[in-house]
Amino acid sequence: MILNGRMRAIVQDNGPIHRCKEVQQLWKKWEDMGLYIFFLPKYCSEMNPIELEWQHLKKDELSGQIFDDELDLAYAVINGVTARGKKQTIVHIV
After folding, report:
1. Spatial separation of the C-alpha atoms in residues 87 and 62, rounded to whole Å
2. Residue 10 region, left (φ>0) first, then alpha (ψ -120 to 50), else beta?
3. Which residues pair with 36 in a beta bridge?
4. CA of 31: how far to CAs of 26, 35, 52, in Å?
5. 12 with 40: CB under 8 angstroms?
6. Which residues pair with 3 in a beta bridge?
7. What is the pLDDT of residues 35-60, one digit of tens each?
8. Where is the Tc1-like transposase DDE domain (predicted)?
9. Is residue 9 classed as helix, strand or coil in its secondary structure?
10. Count H helices, E strands: the chain?
11. I want to staple 1 with a disulfide (CB 3.0 to 4.6 A). Which of 14, 26, 34, 75 is the partner?
12. In contact, 81 and 91? CB cutoff 8 Å
């Protein structure tokens, strides 16, 4: 689907969650909504948009920091994603 000059797509890797019956049942609904369902090739993490975001997040937002615990790390990740979203580098990732 193209809306406002942008293609609307659901990009999925080949993880088990994306191939389970519950998700497969959604494919028809998504197609009926005009969404294009795109599966990445196996073992191509460099093509996965979320992997690129994690790479930038680690390099730009989390680099050089030391975290006291998992909660501090979680907040830093949330803040980093928020900062990258404000720069409009992330349109939407589920």
Report:
1. 16
2. beta
3. 9
4. 9, 5, 26
5. yes
6. 6
7. 888 888 887 777 777 788 888 889 98
8. 9-70
9. strand
10. 4, 4
11. 34
12. no
Query: Residue 51 corresponds to which amino acid?
Result: E
Residue 72: φ, ψ to 5°: -60, -40
Please identify which residue in the block is written with the tokens 């942008």. Answer: 6
Q: Hey, what are 40's tokens? A: 């990445």
CA–CA separation, 43 and 26 (whole Å): 24
pTM for the model: 0.49
Angle at 90 between CA 84 and CA 92, to 5 degrees: 135
Residue 32 CA to residue 11 CA, distance in Å, equals 16
Instruction: Give the separation between CA 11 and CA 18, rounded to whole angstroms.
Output: 10
- The residue length of the chain stands at 94
